[in-house]
Design brief:
The protein is mainly alpha-helical and 183 residues long. Helices cover 54% and strands 2% of the residues.
């Protein structure tokens, strides 16, 4: 009997040491991070919708229950029996509880859909901006021309009206005039 216990104890010690050694020399099993295109955008949007909808459920349920309790309290002429206490034991009938739950679920789905619509609109605007930036629009820089340095006394004021009755080679009369202000 003593030999059997010693044998079992030795085997257990050897297995324990072996299991620690295996962990020290084992291969790295850390999963690779997800790549950008690994999941389609629809699945990412559906997952975000699910997280927001289910994440809002406890808070919306408390608010819905508190609101319903307040309405009952007001309808019963502020009776202390109907005082809204969200932490008290439930005094609602089964139909009221089902109504509160479905109201909370409806509000949560509305919150999730609102977030989904906002994300789709933002993504659409970003794609539109990216499309404009990637278009074949060519921007030609204008050469930087240097203006003359004004004289010390300043430039002469432009004449209001200059007439010249020059004619070109074909006998057409040319009139040069400077017009200032709107007519």
């Amino acid at each position: 009997m003593k030999n059997a216990r010693k044998l079992i104890l030795k085997i257990t010690a050897i297995l324990l040491c072996f299991s620690f050694c295996v962990n020290c020399f084992g291969a790295d099993t850390t999963p690779a991070p997800y790549s950008e295109g690994e999941f389609p955008q629809f699945l990412k949007d559906a997952r975000r919708f699910e997280i927001i909808t289910l994440g809002a459920l406890p808070f919306v349920t408390i608010q819905t229950t508190l609101g319903y309790s307040t309405i009952k309290y007001v309808q019963n002429d502020f009776s202390s029996a109907y005082f809204p206490n969200p932490f008290a034991a439930s005094s609602y009938s089964q139909d009221e509880q089902i109504g509160l739950l479905f109201t909370s679920l409806g509000i949560c789905v509305g919150i999730g859909l609102t977030d989904l619509i906002i994300q789709l609109v933002k993504r659409g605007k970003a794609k539109k901006r990216a499309g404009i930036q990637d278009s074949d629009l060519i921007i030609t820089p204008v050469e930087n021309t240097k203006l003359p340095i004004p004289p010390e006394n300043g430039f002469l004021p432009p004449p209001e009206y200059i007439e010249s009755n020059d004619s070109d080679d074909e006998g057409v009369e040319l009139i040069n005039e400077i017009v200032t202000g709107a007519e």
